[in-house]
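Milestone 3.1: sequence recovery, worked example.
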């Protein structure tokens, strides 16, 4: 009842009229009936700030008008009907049920409003949100900076007088939408919000003498964007542009994390498509917040940015194993994520990082310096050279050793056999099962047991790696002499559970 009263009061205050304009091109006659029905459902669902609705379909079944002329005819009819606002909806698209209600908070102070890009594939049962895309836009620079596929699509609300002033260029058969957007965003108060207005149904595009191909559209839009960047003296490589890019991508990261939109195996591809050059804050571990400097190509940062975690069970378990202090070796340290976790758990005891890849070493040193981690030292060594580069001081009081796949050869550890026997450090291994078999064979006579870390189930499972080659997709293992009950008590049962297999 309260919602109905609120909606009535909005209509009473605004008394706004809205017109939905839909060109109906060749082959879209039957689709328009579905499109129209979706608008009617949305109107029944909630009117938002609007008091009246008119549905304006422009017949272009012969394809002679083209999209621009058809939309301009629709604008003229909306003006004649004294509509305050227009919503442009193509015949092959559908209106979201909450569209009018979503507009309630945006009619004041704006001249045109877009929402998120939703798509519906022919074989799909439900629409999906396009990932990636820019979540929020509030100025022309947003439109100039990003690839057009990431920004706007036609379905949007616009004030009728504004649409009448801007209109669509009827000489254009491709890219007329972005030409219109650019002129609109240059002069008027435009915004893209994290709301939903319409669903783009894929693979249902109209045909006809004035239709354009996807490649025609891409060429036309990119040419137009380049021209506008020159006209507005907008350098996409400037510091200001980089700051805006990082801001928008960080907003997308937060949105995807909150909505759980991205899977772990998608993160790196998304980061390559939309690289972020800034700092990723990490604050859910013991020892306080630290940051990793993202260069747009770091797989750890990609996971942290898009899904909010990187092997959370393995990394939490790793920190919990280090509470007794001592020395930690991080062999194949990468960007330093695990070294920084260790430094916070052990501080001020020593962490020794070994890395030989130039790119990873640069990341490692940058991250250690940024976090002022004074208890982290560096050694540069290839796998076969580790035995010769470690001094007695480097391994005194050895508590734990982490080894990544690039260093997982028995020769790596042969010089540490006495040290391992003396201190019995825990081993965290990030590698496939066949490589674990070799190391476990070397450690088993020293009374070590092997556990696979099942990240998704948050379980620690006792197993023989020789029998588990296909059982650990994540490739994380723990080798230890500790009893499992004591191990999990130290880690804290809230982290996960131990399963005997």
């Amino acid at each position: 009842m309260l919602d109905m009263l609120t909606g009535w009061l909005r209509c009473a205050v605004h008394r706004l009229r809205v017109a939905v304009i839909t060109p109906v091109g060749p082959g879209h006659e039957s689709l328009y009936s579905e499109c129209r029905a979706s608008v009617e459902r949305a109107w029944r669902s909630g009117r938002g700030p609007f008091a009246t609705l008119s549905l304006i379909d422009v017949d272009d079944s012969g394809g002679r008008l083209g999209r621009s002329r058809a939309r301009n005819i629709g604008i003229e009819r909306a003006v004649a009907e004294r509509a305050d606002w227009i919503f442009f909806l193509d015949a092959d698209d559908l209106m979201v049920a909450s569209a009018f209600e979503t507009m309630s908070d945006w009619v004041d102070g704006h001249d045109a409003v877009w929402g998120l890009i939703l798509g519906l594939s022919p074989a799909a049962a439900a629409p999906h949100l396009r990932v990636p895309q820019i979540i929020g836009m509030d100025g022309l620079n947003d439109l100039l900076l990003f690839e057009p596929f990431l920004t706007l699509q036609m379905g949007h609300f616009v004030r009728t007088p504004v649409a009448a002033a801007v209109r669509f260029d009827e000489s254009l058969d491709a890219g007329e939408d972005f030409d219109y957007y650019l002129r609109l965003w240059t002069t008027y108060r435009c915004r893209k919000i994290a709301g939903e207005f319409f669903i783009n149904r894929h693979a249902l595009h109209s045909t006809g003498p004035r239709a354009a191909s996807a490649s025609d559209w891409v060429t036309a839009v990119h040419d137009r964007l380049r021209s506008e960047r020159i006209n507005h003296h907008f350098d996409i490589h400037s510091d200001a542009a980089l700051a805006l890019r990082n801001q928008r991508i960080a907003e997308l990261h937060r949105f995807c994390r909150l909505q759980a939109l991205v899977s772990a195996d998608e993160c790196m591809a998304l980061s390559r498509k939309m690289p972020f050059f800034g700092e990723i804050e990490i604050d859910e571990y013991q020892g306080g917040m630290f940051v990793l400097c993202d260069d747009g190509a770091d797989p750890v940062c990609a996971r942290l940015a898009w899904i909010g975690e990187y092997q959370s069970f393995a990394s939490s378990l790793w920190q919990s194993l280090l509470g007794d202090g001592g020395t930690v070796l991080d062999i194949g340290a990468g960007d330093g994520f695990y070294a920084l976790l260790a430094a916070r758990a052990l501080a001020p005891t020593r962490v020794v990082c070994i890395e030989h890849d130039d790119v990873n070493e640069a990341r490692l040193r940058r991250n250690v310096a940024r976090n002022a981690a004074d208890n982290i030292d560096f050694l540069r060594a290839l796998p076969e050279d580790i035995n010769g580069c470690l001094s007695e001081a480097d391994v005194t009081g050895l508590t734990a050793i982490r080894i990544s796949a690039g260093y997982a050869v028995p020769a790596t550890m042969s010089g540490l056999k006495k040290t391992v026997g003396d201190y019995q450090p825990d081993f965290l291994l990030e590698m496939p099962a066949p490589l674990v078999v070799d190391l476990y064979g070397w450690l088993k006579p020293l009374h070590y047991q092997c556990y696979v870390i099942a990240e998704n189930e948050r379980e620690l499972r006792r197993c023989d790696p020789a029998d588990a080659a296909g059982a650990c997709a994540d490739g994380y293992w723990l080798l230890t002499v500790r009893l499992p009950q004591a191990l999990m008590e130290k880690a804290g049962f809230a982290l996960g559970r131990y399963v005997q297999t």
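The chain has two domains: 2-231, 311-500. The first helix runs from residue 2 to 14.
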